Amino acid sequence: MERRTIFPGRLLPAALVAPQLLLTVVFFVWPALHACWMSLHSEDPFGLASVFVGFDNYAALFGDPLYIATVARTIVFCFAVASISMLVALPLAVFADADIRGRAVYRTLLIWPYAVAPALAAVLWILLVHPQIGLLGRPLDRLLSLAGGHWDYKLNGGQALLVVVLASAWKQVSYNFIFLLAGLQSIPRAVIEAAQVDGARGWRRFRTILLPLLSPTLFFLLIVNLVYAAFDTFGTIQAMTQGGPAQATQTLVVKVFRDGHDNGDLGSSSAQSVVLMLGVIALTAAQFRFLGRQRH
Amino acid sequence: MKRREVIAASAGLAVSGLFGTRSSAQSARTPIVWWHAMTAANAEQVNRVAADFNASQDRAEITAVYKGTYPDLLNATIAAFRAGQAPHVAQIFEVGTGSMLAAGKAVKQNWQLAQEAGVTIDPAQFVPAVRGYYSLPDGRLASMPFNSSTAVMWYNKDAFAAAGLDPEQPPATWPGLVSACAQLKAKNAIEVPMMTSWPSWIQFEQYSAIHDLPFATEADGFNGLGAELVFNSPAHARHLQRLMDMSRDGTFRYGGRGDAPENLFPAGTAAIMFESSGNRGLYSRTSKFRWGEAMLPFDPAVIAAPNNAIIGGASLWAMTAPNRTAEEYRAVGALMAFIAEPDQVALWHQKTGYIPTTEAGYELSRQQGWYEQNPGADIPIRQLTRGHVTDNSRGLRLGRLPEIRTILEEEIERALQGEQTAQAALDRAVERGNKVLRDFQRSVRA
User: Fold this and answer.
1) CA distance A256 to chain B (A)
2) Which of A46, B66, B331, B417 is deepest in the core (most CB within 10 A)?
3) B262-277: per-residue pLDDT in tens?
4) What ipTM goes with this model?
């Protein structure tokens, strides 16, 4: 049954939605339009002179092999973060859903990392993995040097990418955990009990009952995690590697920030933002379509 | 606290702030705002300069405001200018100079400000390496020199002694340094023999200046926006190759960009650290061993006697805004003149470790016996004032230089990972950097 409130007239409802609409226009629509406008111009940082350049900024972007490499890297990064964080969160959620002693404590502890600010999380990770001062980094460096190698994420691109993927995924495990736990708890007990009576246990029960019933949650989380990895990992990456070494950990948002904030190249930075915006719109549309279809 | 209360409280703060400015305006002092990027002890000194200036006259009241790191500050200044709210004075880092010179009516260059304010700021009073960096080709000052440093070599005397090296004779040349590092490594005197902060600034920009090699054409960009990068010469490539060789045999470890590795020196991890001379205060507080400060080593194969090094740090720019009055500009001019007074220069130099920017301030520090009490504290200024300023040692005047630095460092990192040769790294950096320079040229001509 649906509950619906009907407001009389047009003025009152308009007045009630106006603040929200105003916020959306001022903080989302207007800056987005401004970015579109800037992406078609070449402008000096102080805004003293501006010239319309058409799609030059976009053409330069897609003609730049380093940008294409950044796009590819971002895709790899996003799927790595999303899959690692979900694969870690899933067993944790399944076990925390079981009837075990002190599960409230486990749940609370597992949700904690979500409250850690990205920059702070990055600092904690640096203290762990730094090759010279890190709690894990030092022994790891010594271990690898036995094999003639080095643990040095400040110079080794692959290691750097691994470190930022792990740090970013770690941050997201709690979030996935909450949703997966809620998803598991919403599965009717009767179904599980019926399966138990039929003799389905452990792995089989998980694979044939829980996983299919969790799939809408998993799909939702996949999209959310991809968006998280694409956007909200900026703080972590910026604090840990600033996109380096070389460009090994530079994702699209890091590049937007670098070009716009550090380099003052507003035209290119705006063009990159517009490309990113289109990506998010596509992801969100996919999510709405799929989840909308599921419900019917 | 509920959200509504938070909003109410912040509104209250805003209102009280409004009245705060009103009441100070009643005392007939012109309020002046100075944005800076100094932290810790150096921030205290900025506040001290502001307080001294306020006490020295009664027409203007200056407030110093910390606005974040140098890049943050530059961006905040640009954003504020675009909103018509630029601060009166902004402390802009030296590599932002090229961008600020293209800022047209957003700034009042120093010579113009002094003229309008009726104060005299004689360019000749500044030491040449400082003057050169911040002046126009005809000698007029574009911005006000404030905190200038240079790159030096910090070394751990205990580690030198442990390796059987003379702690009082740090290597003066690169070949000497390489063999010293090999000895530090062979004797296992320390974990890492050598590290460097600011790879582009120290190992390429400074290296070019002291060896009288061009970093870019057009006198390193001083003569025009058409400058092209040329730091891919054989001498530069040999230097990078040396760093790569040292990295391979473990005598050099790359520690990241900017000042990321700086704390590995006081921690006793690295025996030799290339860093800014402005780290003196930090290192004297945090190092638990005997340490020394030395000039940057040079290549005898490239130059017989090294030339002057170039500066780092920042200068003060007078910003414009709509409705800014002549009285406000006069106050800014007075502040700039005040900062260049010998006792202010000497005090700033001694309290922070930045170099004395004027000859008079240097002389005053000498008379006060500062260098006898602090051996080595004159190394930076001696390194900056030796030789003759040439087209290759005046400094760099390139637009979007911070971006070019990042590009160079990215390519160095790839070379150190063994993904490309030294020459290929520098060629690629030059090619990518030149594209940035052409973009900048186009955007300011627009």
Assistant:
1) 13
2) B331
3) 999 999 999 999 999 9
4) 0.78
